[in-house]
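Take our chain:
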Amino acid sequence: MGYFYTQRWTWIHMKIAIYGRVIRPDTAPYIRQLLDLLQVRQHEILLCQSYLPELAEYGLDNVAHQVLPDAYGISNQADFLISMGGDGTILDAATIVRDSGVPILGINIGRLGFLSTIGKERLDTAIDALERGTFVADRRTLLHLDTNPGPLFGEVSFALNEFTILKKDSSSMITVHVYINGEFMSSYWADGLIVATPTGSTGYSLSCGGPIVFPTANNLVITPVAPHNLNIRPIVVPDDAVISFEVEGRSTEYLLTLDSRQVAVQSGTQVAVRKESFGVSLIRLDDMNFLTTLRNKLNLGVDTRNRA
């Protein structure tokens, strides 16, 4: 699904879904600019229902050709979803498009914007790219969570960035026994454990000392959170592995998270993660790539000697 045209200014009718979280006074003008731009170019605007209260507060809710019935009504109704926000909004957007194949274009009106790579000042350029087909849609791996009892996260038991096991209480750590395809790998005495996708390798896992992995790599990263052991290191495993866990600790509960969503579970819950059967596509402009983002957002290679 999508449009791929090369002649400039050959506008076509597109169905554009728009999703966001909170609208602030300083970001409202950019959302208005986007809506005006789509109206002038006669594209169909679809608004996610959960976004309407925020839009209504700024008088921006009356431009929709269609309101999606709920946050998960995008399948087969839109050609693209534009995410207005930061990286957290992109993570939400992944749960909206699910397995529909609808590509996500992230406009950064948040903070870092590592996943939402297109700056708010490039709205015209972004819409041009959609119309002309001069963009790249990067396919991103998702993680699927299996639990017994479960499913604990309903119909969205997947994550774009990471799955984590975390202690629930602030005092004592937990012990996480990890198995790869049923074979014991190691036991981690720590505050928790992260399993990150290549996309998520630059998120929570990175802040805990994990490696940066290219988004196209067929790997997953297992990274401990504050391990109480001097010889524990993050490890990279192939993404066709099934990673299962047994958790012990003084507390009877611990936390499981999928990106920004979390649930408390009882000790004894069976937990495993694997690669999801589908992925999501994140749109980037032709003049942007992963290495550019690393340099611009994470200051990769920044050294005062390079300025000489």
In short: The longest strand covers residues 183-190. The chain has two domains: 15-140+279-307, 143-275. DSSP finds six helices and 20 strands in the chain.
